[in-house]
Automatic annotation (TrEMBL):
The lineage of its organism: Eukaryota, Metazoa, Chordata, Craniata, Vertebrata. It is a multi-pass membrane protein. The gene is LOC108266248. The chain crosses the membrane at residues 25-47, 59-81, 101-121, 133-160, 180-203, 224-245. PROSITE patterns: G_PROTEIN_RECEP_F1_2 (PS50262). This is 2-oxoglutarate receptor 1. The keyword rRNA processing does not apply. Signal peptide: none annotated. The keyword Membrane applies.
């Protein structure tokens, strides 16, 4: 059934519960788990797992990225509950920026982690070199810089919209479609599709190396394979639906032949996919146990005050 506003002719959403109940509930859960889990992970790495090698540096930066994202969620939860944005246009732009900065930062950190594990498994003679702290620091600084360049233009595209006595903080795909169309495609191809190809390639190379290796059953190699599989699962389950539906959402707003019902279905599906993309923080927490830094032992030692058996040999640049 197609519904229109009799005065403006604008297509109305049939089910507002997705926006006003589903989003705050999901973002609230992601905040609680993401804030607690990533803060705990950072504390463990700082207190229990030093000195750091490349893998540890990447994981800490991933946790920092997820923590910053989690800190932005209470503002969105309040907005979707009250149905009125009261923090001004700058904060609207900043919080939408934080979501995408975390999204594409996480994609790059996970890609970097996959490449690191590929080198360790497929080219073990180079493992000692890439595990030096200077490599991890350089890689993470580069990722932060690339993420900033990728998402920086978004600050000028996000806007608020007044509707009577209320103000709406528009998400990226609900802004001016002609403005965000090209940029959305650029982000999807360079920010997601290209890293996905790299992760898939690393997965196939690691799998091939393990299938032809006599040491495939070694815990470190099994852990590297499981880590890559989990990263690939995050790319497909969390990031892929969001990118496809975001492009469909913007495309439906640009099209003059898309019916009201089609626009409503696409918008509702796109809205459902937004917290799904944020659920990558849950998977990222699971990566810590597979990172090969004795994270589990360090966690138990911090909680139960037991001393872990962790090597103190530093690998310096």
């Amino acid at each position: 059934m197609e519904l229109y506003d009799n005065d403006s002719g604008v297509c109305l959403s049939v089910d507002l519960s997705i926006k006003h109940y589903y989003l705050p509930a999901m973002y609230g859960i992601i905040f609680l788990v993401g804030f607690t889990g990533n803060l705990m992970a950072i504390i463990i790495y700082v207190v229990k797992l030093r000195p750091w090698k490349t893998g540890s540096i990447i994981m800490v930066n991933l946790a920092v990225s997820d923590l910053l994202y989690a800190l932005s969620l209470p503002f969105l939860v309040n907005f979707y509950i009250t149905r009125n944005w009261m923090l001004g246009e700058f904060m609207c732009r900043f919080l939408r920026f934080c979501f995408h900065f975390n999204l594409y930062g996480s994609i790059l950190f996970l890609t970097c982690l996959s490449v690191f594990r590929y080198v360790v498994v497929v080219h073990p003679l180079r493992a000692a070199q890439v595990q030096r702290a200077c490599w991890g620091v350089s890689a993470c600084l580069t990722i932060w810089a690339i993420s900033l360049l990728e998402i920086g233009p978004m600050l000028s595209m996000i806007m608020t919209k007044n509707d009577g006595n209320t103000t709406d903080c528009l998400d990226f795909a609900s802004n001016e479609p002609e403005t965000v169309w090209w940029y959305g495609w650029l982000l999807s191809v360079l920010g997601y599709l290209l890293p996905l190809v790299v992760v898939c390639w690393c997965y196939t190379q690691i799998r091939g190396a393990l299938s032809n290796s006599l040491s495939a059953s070694r815990p470190s190699r099994v852990r590297a394979y499981r880590l890559t599989v989990m990263i690939l699962a995050v790319f497909v389950m969390c990031f892929l639906p969001y990118h496809i539906l975001r492009l469909l959402r913007v495309g439906s707003l640009r099209s003059n032949v898309t019916s009201c019902l089609q626009k409503k279905i696409i918008n509702d599906a796109y809205t459902l996919s937004r917290p799904l993309a944020g659920l990558n923080t849950f998977f990222n927490l699971g990566l810590f146990t597979l990172a090969g830094d004795k994270f589990q032992q360090a966690f138990y030692s911090l909680i139960f005050r037991r001393k872990p058996t962790i090597s103190k040999v530093a690998v310096i640049c």
